[in-house]
Specification:
Rossmann fold, 12% strand, alpha/beta, globular, 48% helix
């Protein structure tokens, strides 16, 4: 039996995600699928429009066998950290293959780019220091978001000598396209349409579960945090004096979008700033990130097939009962509290219950 790993955020779950799962079942009929899932905050700094609990239930409903947590402390980070932590979780779960969406659908091109980047890491750091964006600093002929993330997945596999085979599935939509009305469109397009009060039933079966994020409150919370915190540079991704730009513009901007636009630079992209602001809001420090390793796997949900697989011995703690003393557990709780403020939900109760969802 093939053990297939996938890494997704489901913000929200849509027809493209269903196609992803169906394609895996078509390619590997008897496979078991393990999902590494983000919770409340996304890799690009967005706030999830689905709760973690709903995402787990949806995944199980859509024939995922095991769902494990991608902790906030890793999943709200740069592409390389996001990818390496997720791939490491899949390696520890015994996955033989990682299947991900790709614009080029050319795994050889992605592998070649990954090897080139690993061999030229010094040049990439120099490019970043010159103020080039991360995609531009890579100096490879790939610029599409999923392909760039795919490079990070393959880099993690090569660097750590993991025995996982990366496999691509052709992505049928454009991440940057916010206007398409095709059957499969990007999650960002769905979020934009839903925000404009347009029906998105055509694109997702779970429109009724999409939550409204209070962006005005988000900006007010950031205003309070930035204006009252005397040591902003202790937070993750607050580097190179950017805290002075934060303090300079936090009271000049009328909303979050304007604030990000005012502090944006060549080196600090829109997504990087969004991640940084979430780190500040939740209080994720550089020290805590540096002192955190993947020493357990948080089980979020499983079905009967998944339960049978989980009964086998693993060389790492797989559990749903994570002690509050773990650093990554502490930040998962903090993330849920902030999420509840911004969405008027009660995910904190789900976190405290600390039990996997079963579909037996």
């Amino acid at each position: 039996m093939e053990i297939i790993g996938i890494i997704c955020e489901y913000n929200p779950f849509h027809n493209g995600h269903r196609y992803h799962i169906e394609k895996i079942k078509e390619l590997f009929p008897s496979s078991l699928i393990i999902l590494v899932l983000n919770g409340y905050f996304m890799q690009r700094g967005d706030i999830s429009v689905l709760t973690k609990e709903d995402k787990v239930k949806i995944a199980l409903e859509e024939n995922i066998d095991i769902v494990i947590e991608h902790p906030f402390i890793f999943s709200s980070n740069s592409a390389d950290i996001f990818a390496e932590s997720a791939v490491t979780l899949l390696e520890k779960m015994g996955c033989s293959k990682l299947v991900f969406g790709s614009e080029s659908n050319n795994i050889n091109l992605i592998k070649e780019a990954a090897k080139k980047i690993l061999d030229n890491s010094k040049n990439i750091k120099e490019n970043l220091n010159k103020g080039l964006s991360y995609p531009a600093s890579l100096n490879v002929n790939i610029s599409s978001p999923n392909d760039i993330l795919g490079i990070s997945y393959v880099k993690a596999i090569i660097k750590n000598n993991y025995k996982i085979e990366p496999i691509t599935i052709k992505r049928t939509n454009d991440y940057h396209d916010l206007k398409s009305t095709d059957n499969i469109i990007s999650a960002s397009n769905i979020r934009k349409k839903h925000k404009e009060k347009l029906s998105v039933d055509k694109y997702t079966s779970y429109q009724h579960l999409i939550k409204k994020v209070d962006e005005d409150l988000l900006f007010k919370l950031l205003q309070y945090k930035i204006n009252t915190e005397h040591n902003l540079d202790k937070y993750l991704t607050v580097d190179e004096g950017i805290e002075y730009r934060l303090l300079k513009y936090i009271n000049k901007a009328k909303d979050l979008d304007e604030f990000i636009t005012l502090i944006k630079t060549k080196r600090y992209t829109f997504n990087r700033i969004k991640r940084m602001l979430i780190h500040i809001l939740i209080g994720l420090t550089k020290e805590d990130k540096d002192n955190t390793n993947i020493d357990y796997i948080k089980l979020l949900g499983f079905n009967k097939k998944g339960q049978k697989y989980l009964s086998k011995e693993k060389d790492i703690l797989i559990t749903s009962k994570i002690p509050d003393s773990f650093i990554s557990r502490k930040y998962e709780l903090k993330a849920s509290i902030i999420y509840d403020l911004l969405t008027n939900q009660n995910t904190y109760e789900f976190e405290l219950e600390n039990k996997p969802i079963k579909k037996i």
